[in-house]
Amino acid sequence: MNTDNIIDDENAKNIKRKPYYIYDLEQINWMLEQNCMPLEVGRGAKGEVYLIFPRTFEMESIVHKWKLKKWRLAKSLNN
Fold it and tell me: N or C of the chain: less Cβ packing under 10 Å?
């Protein structure tokens, strides 16, 4: 199983995390617009396309922004 090492300079911790496997094409496009470089492109068991992104602190921040964006959109549609 592939894992990336994340080194937190602030706390000097070494954390092992699996990379992000992103299947949502809307999220993939948004991440590419944020200048995120994928490690690999592949196909899932059902033929769906996915991109693998490294799991770094910068990437964690970008994925968090995506989740907030989707949460805000869902919240605005429900109100």
Answer: N
Q: How many domains does the chain have?
A: 1
The length of the chain is 79
- Residue 2 and residue 20: Cα distance in Å, rounded? 11
pTM of the model as a whole:
0.71
Q: Give the Cβ contact number of residue 40 at 10 Å.
A: 11
Q: Give the relative orientation of helices 57-78 and 25-33 as an angle to the nearest 10 degrees.
A: 130
Give the domain extent around 57: 4-78
Residues 21 and 50: beta-carbon distance below 8 Å: yes
Per-residue pLDDT of the chain (79 residues; tens, 9 = 90+): 444 455 555 554 555 689 999 999 999 999 999 999 999 999 999 999 999 999 999 999 999 999 998 898 888 888 6
